[in-house]
Amino acid sequence: MERIYIQAKVREGRVPLPSKIFQGFGSMTDSHIQFAFNAVLMIYYNQLLGVSGTAVSLALAAALVIDAISDPLVGAFSDRLDSRFGRRHLLMYLSALPLGIMMFLLFSPPAFLSESQLIGWLFFSVVGLRLAFTLFHVPWVAFGMELVSDYDERTEIPGWRLVSGWLGGVAFSFGMYTFVFGASEGFPQGQLNPNSYSDFAVITGLLVTLWCFLTAHLTRKEIPYLARPAEPTNFSLMVMSKQIWSVFLNPYYRKLVIALLFLAIVSSFGGFFDALMNTFFWGLAGEDLRWFSLAIFGAAFGIFLAVRLSRHYQKQHIIVAALLVNMVLAIAKVSLRFLDWVPENGDPMLIWVLTIQEVLHVAVITMPMTLFGSMLADLSDDQEQRSGERQEGVLASITSFAMKLTSSVGLIAGGLMLDYFIEMPAGAAKAGIAIESDVLFRLAISDGIISSLLLLIPISILATYKMSRNDIEEIQTHNRDKRRIIQEDV
Questions:
Q1: Which of 153-167, 194-208, 410-424 ranks highest by mean pLDDT?
Q2: What class is the 16-487 domain?
Q3: What is the mean pLDDT of the chain?
Q4: Beta carbons of 263 and 458 less than 8 angstroms apart
Q5: Helices 26-35 and 197-218 meet at what angle, rounded to 10?
């Protein structure tokens, strides 16, 4: 049964640039969370608080199981919501404060907790953080998908999200490594200073709340252009479950979901080791890591290439090529060190070699990040043709879930490898124990070789994805001919 939708205004022309930029502000929330999980969480809990990598992994795994249910449910609820703030903005407003509070708690455990109590604190903090992030991220991504219907302009929306995310993320990481995790007496590598994490908790908690509120408030003028249900909405669990299931019956969606999830898992698995590699294998301090902020130029170039190339080539083909290049770069980074073709630790040239590699890596990984969002928006048209409903929220839920996989599953797999393959001793940094060379070798193999070769999984899946520009244009024409969206009297 097709639903009837109401919108107060009909858009003429392109989406205003300020709206694209303000919508992108929400990505800074995600960039701060990713920094917290990928750059410092394992160092904090494993090396400074002495919790084993396996215990941290199991706590995150349990939290992920609970959280996995929330994403599609929030998406389905958002699709059917009718409020004076539209289908998306009310949930974005409501998520802002809880998200900041849970981020603060994650890095503020009481000093008297035992290891088992620390694991419990980590578990409940991550569950609360993930649920609050779901309430924000799913409607936020769905809102971005609704803004544009043009095939090419759709690529610009995730592009602007990435621009905002990278600008905010670079400024954030530069500030953290300079002012919070900077070198001090007794801690030349500031990320190993346990006293720095209380400031980190406060600053990060305030910022994620701020960005949630700003992206919702500054884009509220776009609400009249968005469709909302004209009929009374049934929010029963059974109805929403059927809505979710109808999306998974879409063969294009299933293939894109599997590819995106594998890519998220592989990326998070490799990203898990980055903080440990930079600290122990490459011997970098916070002042050195600040130079990785130059990777923003790689991000800008990657976004530019994604937007330009998608006008001439199929989006999935561009992603496959970018992932292949990224795999080669990652393997070469570690292999050249083994061949003694990379400067030794402490050599001023080393940081520049690693920074250049990071710029190239970010350039090629930004292209898939841009194009996946565009492809999900394309799928919303295909799903409307199949079901008669606009289901951007459910479609967006996979993006939210993938982002959480980026932070969680990589930590889960990485934590197990850290204990049982790499065999890095927990609490070594706190106790001042030097890491043995064979441990560092296994760490480098895990980061540079194993995680890179796993990229072949999403590459092989995307190589069989067939939806093209012509397919989308035909679907949009079909939808326009039968769509029942009426303009509301204003």
A1: 194-208
A2: mainly alpha
A3: 84
A4: yes
A5: 160
